[in-house]
Amino acid sequence: MGLSGLSRENKEKVPPQTRRERVVAGLVGMPWFFFILAYPLISTIFLETELDGEIPFEIAFFNMLFMVFSFFLVDLVVLDWLIITKITPKFVIIDGTTPEDYKDFSHHYKGHLIASIPLILICAVFSAIIVFL
């Protein structure tokens, strides 16, 4: 698990990631990131096919946005709030930290709010590609 479950102050308690840890995080994160973007993209392409090859930009955009934000909300509510903040099982606790270090939820939703802007833009770009190409 990365340091996303910790506030800025608590991240200082943890030594920097080793090269191996960064590689493993990338190997685990990239398929997840691909799935989050590929599934809505493929769904929108299939929706376009169902609409006889013509899909309005708004429909394509909202289809992608709904799917991306569904994953986004599951991550925020189930993983960040319920599992990390409320339950805090031993496997999420990084050496050098305590379970109490994971109880602050504010940085989770602030991070999600910041990340929502690029996700909206990515959905708009992919929707435009599907509609206009």
Question: Would you kindly provide a written description of the structure presented here, covering whatever features stand out?
Answer:
- With 133 residues, the chain is mostly helical.
- The chain has one domain.
- It is 71% helix and 0% strand.
- It has four helices and no strands.
- It is elongated and about 55 Å long.
- The chain starts with 7 loop residues before the first helix and ends with a helix.
The tally of beta strands, per DSSP, is 0
**Most strands sheet:** none
What is the helical fraction, as a range of percent? over 70%
| Mean of pLDDT | 90
Unreliable residue runs: none
Number of domains: 1
Order of helices and strands: HHHH
As a percent range, the share of strand residues is: under 5%
Tally of contiguous helical segments = 4
Q: End-to-end span in angstroms?
A: 39 Å
What are the defining features of this structure?
about 130 residues; mainly alpha
Brief sketch in words of this structure:
With 133 residues, this protein is mostly helical. It has helices at residues 8-11, 19-50, 57-87, 106-132.
Layout of SSEs?
Blueprint: H1 8-11, H2 19-50, H3 57-87, H4 106-132
Helix pairs in contact: 2-3, 2-4, 3-4
